[in-house]
Design a protein that fits this description.
13 helices, globular, 4-stranded mixed beta sheet
């Protein structure tokens, strides 16, 4: 991609902070955009610190809560929680110019559709990343590098995806451009759908892998998702291979807590609508039975309602 490209990171928490820091260290002109003024103030006052292993690296950054205060960017990357995509999309217009590319590496399904609806004519890049990032405190992020897969949304040119992969390469990170990134998105989606089990049981990764009943439940969650993905035409999704990968991930994570369990711990709204609920919506459209995922959605939605998070306006009811 070359150095000196202007990049806007929208959603400057854990993953957005990690990616933005890497892009800045590679020589790009990065601005962080976030509605949380406390985070913006921390970034401007103390910089952004990335923790990797025993190393801590702090860089000076520019952050703002007002996207109209900065110039349009050549790459605008969205890292907000899935349920905040609509609100984030509504504030993107000042950041987009005639040469901009708009990218989402968010979890689940639907973010690319929201961005394309609101910003017709801007090339959209969708993808998934296996970078792991945790915010230790505002402006301090623990980061582990993983692969990233990106591709153009229907109607966009592959060159837009190459711009995103190029920025990753500049940062020294593995990234692959795919003409059809949907199978990669579904693979990550199915892995993330197991997070609901961790949230509802309160189990960390090691506890899940040690309990045979839970491992069987995880297998059933993934099996239903594969049925839906197969009905959509995504081939090559092998249940046994998925379960081996999940076993390896949980074993490595040990005492780590899934992101949805962390949401439960903190009393935050979850990403269930973009994960298991997205599987249920596609299943209903395709007449595929997904009773386990449907039950997980009902339980998580019940928890959200009891914690003050009602159904968003216009959200479809799950029959």
């Amino acid at each position: 991609m070359g150095t000196g490209v202007r990049i806007a990171i929208v959603g400057s928490g854990a993953l957005g902070g990690a990616f933005g820091a890497g892009f800045a260290a590679a020589g790009h002109d990065v601005v962080f955009v976030d509605v949380a003024t406390s985070l913006v103030d921390a970034l401007n006052e103390r910089g952004l610190t990335i923790v990797g292993g025993e190393e801590r690296t702090t860089i000076e950054v520019h952050a703002t809560a007002d996207p109209a205060s900065v110039a349009p960017a050549e790459l605008v990357a969205v890292f907000v929680k899935a349920h905040a995509t609509g609100d984030a999309s509504a504030m993107l217009t000042p950041l987009l110019g005639p040469d901009s590319v708009l990218a989402t590496l968010q979890n689940g399904l639907g973010a690319g559709d929201v961005l394309a609806r609101d910003h017709a004519g801007t090339p959209i890049v969708c993808g998934v990343t296996y970078h792991a990032a945790t915010m230790i405190e505002p402006g301090v992020v623990r980061h582990t590098v993983g692969p990233t897969y990106v591709g153009p949304r229907a109607g966009s040119e592959i060159g837009a995806a190459q711009r995103v992969a190029g920025a990753c390469a500049d940062a020294g990170w593995p990234a692959e451009v795919m003409s059809d990134v949907a199978p990669a998105i579904w693979k990550k989606l199915l892995l993330n759908c197991t997070n609901a089990v961790a949230a509802l049981t309160g189990m960390n990764a090691g506890a899940e892998i040690a309990e045979p009943h839970v491992r069987r439940l995880l297998r059933e969650v993934v099996a239903e998702g594969i049925d839906v993905a197969t009905a959509l035409g995504h081939g090559g999704l092998d249940l046994d291979a998925y379960m081996r990968e999940i076993d390896e991930l949980l074993t490595r994570a040990g005492e780590g807590r899934a992101s949805m369990l962390q949401d439960f711990d903190a009393g935050r709204r979850t990403e269930i609508d973009a994960l298991n609920a997205a599987v249920v919506r596609e299943a209903e459209r395709l007449a595929v039975e997904v009773p386990i995922n449907r039950a997980l959605v009902a339980l998580v939605k019940g928890w959200e309602r009891m914690h003050g998070f009602g159904a968003p306006d216009g959200a479809p009811e799950l029959g």
